[in-house]
Amino acid sequence: MSGRNILVINSGSSSIKFALVNEDRDDFIIEGLAERIGTPEAEVTWKENGEKKHLQLGNADHAEALAQILPHVQKAAGTLTGIGHRVVHGGSQVHEACLLTPEVIGVIEANASLAPLHNPPGLMGINAAISLYPELPHIGVFDTAFHQTMPEHAYRYAIPEEFYTQHQIRRYGFHGTSHMYVSRKGAEMAGLPVEDSCWLVAHLGNGCSATAVVNGESRDTTMGLTPLEGLVMGTRSGDVDPSLQVHLHRTFGYSAQDVETLLTKKSGLLGVSGLSNDMRTLIEASEKGDKKAALAIEIFCYRLAKSLAALSCALPRLDGLLFTGGIGENATLIRKKTLDHMRVFNFKLDDAANQECVRGKGGKISAEGHPLVMVVPTNEERQIANETLAVIDGK
Ligand code: AMP
After folding, report:
1. Fewer CB within a 10 Å sphere, N or C end of the chain?
2. 258-304, pLDDT tens digit by residue?
3. Domains, the chain, with CATH or none
4. Where does this protein hold substrate (predicted)?
5. What separation in Å is there between the alpha carbon of 334 and the centre of ligand 1?
6. Shortest CA distance to 374 belongs to which of 307, 318, 311?
7. How confident is the model at residue 1 (pLDDT cuts 50, 70, 90)?
8. Residue positions in the annotated binding site?
């Protein structure tokens, strides 16, 4: 096989997502997911050249799971050029993808308190992969890195300076890998040079964020210190009045942990609907007359529209609005409802094109003579592989 192979690893608390990406192939040689890691039911399923495979991992932790998975990857790859690791929080210290030296690993550890659900499992995957393949280059690709170009007036909170200077409390932004890939792909699809293009990107999955991208750089984004700020998400509230937390504590005796659980695990689409965090389920329920599901959808779309309008303040002009993520790439209703809330922008969808752009098909969905709106399927694994190769090539 010609072209170099990069293994992409994304470690969650009880899961490891992985893909074997060849630089000359559009599809992935291997794409898989290990789940329920750390339990007796631990298992991995993967697709290898189109064929489905499965392995029980029997109580494996991250290191054991990778030790069982990687020989299969190695066999399919022949030669591996490097490993790209998704890392959620790189703080202010990391501005771009880089080699995972002991110093960089120290930065990831130091930022664990800002991403307690993400950085520690990421580190488990990194350490396990390095001990299995010490001779290969291991590259960290950080969710926060793309947003390091935000100007200070966008990333600082209006709180006393020492919280920023002494404790690094500022807005960081997340989903950077996706926002970067989608804004570049969108420019390519629209026939515009990346370095002279202005986009609003809405990444709508289980986690949701929107970003203003100018000339290939993030200028503002909806997520902040943590991935809780901003849009309404599957189980996350997004923005609430910060006093809510004090009120819950004073009036109802909520602890910090109770507040965190409420706002990150029990809120968002799930909290409002009382039914599900899954948009597909809510659309179906709402079509059958479920009023709470309908309200959850309405809040989701209105809040998204409001945030997109706010982000337009970071753009000198608008070349287009790009939808991505599981909801953005598939939910025609959500795209329509969101744009209906943005009347002063003069958006108008081509209804047939909107219906057509689902299940991985991207393209223009706006009507002629109106601002450009496109669906751009994201591909974080490809972006991580591209950035990994760029670091290896010293670019
Ligand atoms: P992600 O985290 O990017 O995988 O996105 C997951 C979200 O996408 C869930 O809320 C899904 O319900 C939603 N989703 C996937 N397919 C559809 C669809 N056909 N219609 C509406 N929502 C969808």
Report:
1. C
2. 999 999 999 999 999 999 999 999 999 999 999 999 999 999 999 99
3. 5-142 (3.30.420.40), 192-380 (3.30.420.40)
4. 86
5. 11
6. 318
7. low
8. 10, 17, 86, 203-207, 278-280, 326-330, 380
